[in-house]
Amino acid sequence: MGRLRLQLLKSSAVWLLAPTWIALNAVIGSWTSQSVFQLVQRSRVPRFPTQVLSGGVEPVAISIGAGVGLLVFLGGLVFWGNRFKRFRRTTIIAFGIAGGFAMLLGVAGINHSQGLDWPIVGALVLVLLSGLFVLAGATPAALGLLADMTEAHPEDRGAMMGLYSVFLGIGQILGSLMAGFSADRLGFDGLILVGFVLLAVAVIPLGQLRASEHIFDDHARARGAGIRPYRLRLSFADPCAYRSSSSQACATIRRTPRWRRIGS
């Protein structure tokens, strides 16, 4: 059992999504844990007088803003969750990251909106909410991709999901620590800076993840056709090396990229 878990940790497929998964959860952790503290803090001599969002925001305004943001985020979850048949999961993740950048630009504009007319501030709020709506799609897309990845390790599916639960916690903690350190020195701009850095990290492995995405999709189709491999790796071989229950299933897999069965 221990050897199987060690082989799981050594699998390149297991670690393929990890950087993006950790970075996205770190973004969430950085904002959920530190943004409220920055918004409500009060002092006789403001440390960051040029930043509108660095202190002095009324709790009622924060509650209203959080409620609106939550509704927009939930709407994005529903909308993008129904787009898996039209877009690849990595495409939706890329859209989500782009939306995250737009959201941060909107927040940065609002944070330095002193002296701006209300129509301009309203446009910045619209950019923020639109970015949040698109960013919400990255969550179901990443979860769907993770579910497809577990198809390659059916006997270790629970361990794999548990491993990514640990990665989720690591991302939340990492994001909270980074945001706290940066916000203490740069105010609300520190939160924005951390968000940009983490989203940039999430983008880095996305190209490789996209290049391998068809592997998980084909494997899921193969299992649906009655083909039951024990373990897969990123290579090509005779499709009938599977333990197929019928010639029809074997014919089905011949029309898709092929795999080599390893282990037993």
Description:
- The protein is an all-alpha fold.
- The protein has two domains: 16-224, Growth Hormone, Chain: A; 225-264, no CATH class.
- It contains eleven helices and no strands.
- Helix 4 packs across helix 6 (118-135), helix 5 (89-111) packs antiparallel against helix 7 (138-150) and helix 5 (89-111) packs antiparallel against helix 9 (188-203).
- It is globular and about 60 Å long.
- Mean pLDDT is 78; it is low at 227-246 and 249-264.
Q: What is the strand content?
A: under 5%
Query: Roughly how much helix do the residues carry, as a percent range?
Result: over 70%
The assigned CATH architecture of the largest domain is: Up-down Bundle
CATH class of the largest domain: Mainly Alpha
In total, the number of domains comes to 2
Q: Which topology of the largest domain does CATH recognise?
A: Growth Hormone, Chain: A
Give a quick account of the main beta sheet: strands, pairing sense, barrel closure.
none
- From the spread of the alpha carbons, the general shape counts as globular
Please summarize what this structure is.
With 264 residues, the protein is mainly alpha-helical. The protein has helices at residues 2-10, 12-16, 18-40, 59-81, 89-111, 118-135, 138-150, 157-186, 188-203, 206-224, 247-254. It has 2 domains: 16-224, MFS general substrate transporter like domains (Growth Hormone, Chain: A, Up-down Bundle); 225-264, no CATH class.
